[in-house]
Design a protein that fits this description.
The protein is globular, with a radius of gyration of 21 Å. Strand 5, helix 8 and strand 6 form a beta-alpha-beta unit. The protein is built from 16 helices and nine strands. It has about 425 residues and is an alpha/beta fold. Helix 7 packs parallel to helix 8 and helix 9 runs parallel beside helix 10. The strands form two sheets. Strands 1, 2, 3, 4, 5 and 6 form a six-stranded parallel β-sheet that branches. Strands 7-8-9 form a three-stranded parallel β-sheet. Helices cover about 50% and strands about 10% of the residues. The structure holds zinc ion (ZN). The site of zinc ion (ZN) has 3 residues, from loops.
């Protein structure tokens, strides 16, 4: 009896492995590939600039997916047309030097484009994206978005300087509350001074972004900041990397009410691929291990500081990866569920992709290891009955529309024809 039981358990184990392998190896059909390759694919959030700067990573080199999610070869394989590179300044590490770090990260994106002029170009408008993807020799359009208004150091002139340097969106807050408004990331922290939403300065910032033609990004903000921003902005907003709270109860995910409000505003919600924002089971497992994980990170950074070694974000990232790998990855279908949910609640014109690649310590749904896997999303949507026209909107069409509208509002506010 026992040997039969062992034998059956063995078979069951093999079946489980086979089915998880199958789930990871989504086959992209020729039809899906054709649809995907004819679309302008835009990802509104990737944290690769940290790698450019701190790891001296060259986007022209080929990255093992255990280390990074984006390089030029993978971008070609996944037909990635435009990437909004995130200019994210770790507030704890760069306290007192936010602007310098911001400028260094901006420089790192330009330097990559300068190294690979045949494959990559800086882009500053919706038309630049279209141009980069036209003709025989398509290039990756590189755009920049600042993640976290602390980068402007409470100075609206810096906001204008960043615009002049090519930054085309700014996330009003990262996980830290700042002069602009409250973040969803520290609402439970008693030592943080909160503002009950968007501050008077924050209102000024939103209107100045509208005037400049910089997209207002409401990812990461507290719910109250979100509602205040929608009441103030004269242009459509984006959520550069946010998923739906109905499917994963992360406070920085968006409620259905918020999704509908972005639709009414004419904006777009670009779904975040991070497993914890996509899948509730993963989120709960991450929450459970967080105290031990945070302690391990803090101890490692302390040890480096005590030895007099420099500390950058990549030191932290290495440890985070090890911890994330302890939790089983959700299936790729969980990501498609998210896109499907936003499409159903907000409408097909208000959903896009905001991967958060290179910013989630490898915690991505099974089979979604890099930008080369983006065609699997097209396959997943096709399998659920989405038409080519609808898929093109999700892959990038909606973001292009919002970008153009933001540019139009800017011209109007500046009194230009
Ligand atoms: Zn983020």
């Amino acid at each position: 009896m026992n040997s039969i039981k062992t034998w059956l358990a063995g078979i069951a184990g093999l079946l489980a492995i086979a089915s998880s392998l199958l789930a990871q190896n989504v086959q992209v059909s020729p039809k899906a590939k054709e649809i995907h390759d004819s679309a302008i694919v835009i990802d509104t959030h990737a944290d690769t600039p940290q790698r450019f700067l701190d790891e001296n990573f060259d986007i022209g080199s080929v990255t093992p997916t255990t280390e990074g999610n984006i390089d030029l070869q993978k971008a070609r394989e996944g037909n990635l047309g435009a990437e909004f590179f995130s200019i994210w300044v770790a507030p704890d590490i760069y306290k007192g030097h936010f602007a310098k770090r911001t400028l260094d990260l901006i420089d790192s994106v330009y330097e990559q484009a300068a190294r690979h002029p045949d494959q990559m170009m800086m882009a500053f408008s919706a038309e630049d994206i279209v141009e980069a993807r036209s003709g025989q020799h398509k290039k990756l359009a590189a755009l920049m978005g600042i993640e976290g208004g602390h980068s402007i150091e409470g100075d609206i002139r810096l906001l204008r300087d960043y615009y002049r340097l090519g930054v085309r969106y700014m996330t009003l807050t990262w996980s830290n509350t700042n002069e602009i408004g409250d973040s969803s990331g520290d609402l439970d922290k008693k030592d943080v001074k909160h503002h009950k939403g968007l501050t008077p300065f924050g209102k000024q910032v939103v209107l100045e972004m509208n005037r400049l033609g910089m997209m207002v990004d409401i990812s990461h903000v507290a719910d109250k900041t979100f509602w205040d921003t929608l009441a103030v902005t004269k242009a459509p907003v984006i959520a550069s990397h946010s998923s739906a709270r109905a499917l994963s109860h992360a406070p920085r995910n968006m409620t259905d009410e918020m999704l509908r409000a972005v639709a009414k505003n004419g904006g777009v919600v670009d779904v975040n691929f991070y497993s914890g924002f996509v899948d509730e089971k993963f989120r709960l497992a991450e929450e459970a291990q967080k105290p031990a994980q945070d302690a391990a990170v803090a101890a490692a950074l302390r040890a480096r500081r005590e030895k007099g070694l420099p500390v950058d974000y990549m030191d932290e990232e290495k440890i985070q990866r090890e911890w994330m790998a302890k939790i089983p990855r959700p299936p790729l279908s969980a990501l498609i569920d998210q896109i499907d949910h936003v499409a159903k609640v907000a409408g097909i014109d208000h959903v896009g992709l905001g991967s958060d690649f290179d910013g989630v310590s490898g915690a991505l749904p099974a089979g979604m290891d890099s930008v080369a896997d983006l065609p699997k999303i097209t396959q997943g949507l096709l399998d659920r009955g989405y038409t080519q026209e609808q898929i093109e909107k999700i892959l990038g069409g909606n973001v292009l529309r919002v970008f153009r509208e933001v540019e139009r509002v800017s011209r109007q506010m500046r009194g230009q024809p």
